[in-house]
Design goal:
Layout: H1 3-37, E1 40-42, E2 46-53, E3 58-67, E4 75-80, E5 85-89, E6 99-107, E7 114-124, E8 130-140, H2 146-149, E9 152-154, E10 157-159, E11 163-169, E12 176-184, E13 190-197, E14 202-204, E15 210-212, E16 216-224, E17 233-243, E18 250-259
Parallel strand pairs: 2-8, 11-18
Antiparallel strand pairs: 1-3, 3-6, 4-7, 5-6, 7-8, 9-10, 10-12, 12-16, 13-15, 13-17, 14-16, 17-18
Amino acid sequence: MDIKKILSLCLLYCFIGCKVYSFGQTEKEANNLNFATHVLQFDSTVYDFGNLSEKNKAVSHRFMFKNNGKGDLKILKVITACGCTTCNWSKEIIKHGMQGYVEATYSTKNQYGGKFAKAIYVFSNVDPDSIVLTLTGELNGRVKSTQDSFQYHVGNICFTSNTLSFGRIKSGMSDTSKNIPIWNPSESTIVINSFKVEDDEFSIINSLPISIPPHSRIFLPVHFTPHKNRTNGSVRSVARLLTNDSNMPEKRIFFHAEIY
């Protein structure tokens, strides 16, 4: 092989090596850039209205946010956890360095007195892809009675709702607990003889049977222990409480959690 061919091969190898190194650097820089551009920042995620009365009817607050990244930001959707709260938000694309808003309105109509905390879930196309905003305050209104609280009637016992929500749970958490409030409005003692659930990730620690005296209420603790291989997403199940109610012995409660 003559000297010209050897020099040509050396130059070719050097050129290929430089291109590979250059591509590796470009890809790394791009990854870092993408990570850096995913920034959605609110001025504040909690707003306290202070003391309110039903005369206020509706109060609003505008949460301001900024796109601190270099990419385009868009609010995809906003979900409220209560029908008493409504939202409006910036629908346009928010460019780098520009601001947008999420305006939340809390209605005092038909709301009971006491302290409140209303969650608002904001979903976007950037990291973090979901942020929770919260409205807090104290409403000077009518006092909520036991009957007002326990609106879901199943045979001879009452629940506050037909669904027990565990909310959003970070992947890897070992255990989360919530209570099922149960009220016995009748003149007879109600006995819960067994607790059966479709998904073994949900359980109770109370020993059965459990007796609920007349006009009394209890809180039945339920534990949610996700399986180690549990993937992110919604978890739904149904619990069946078997009681001594001769007309409707089985009471059903739905469980829900969101793993992220």
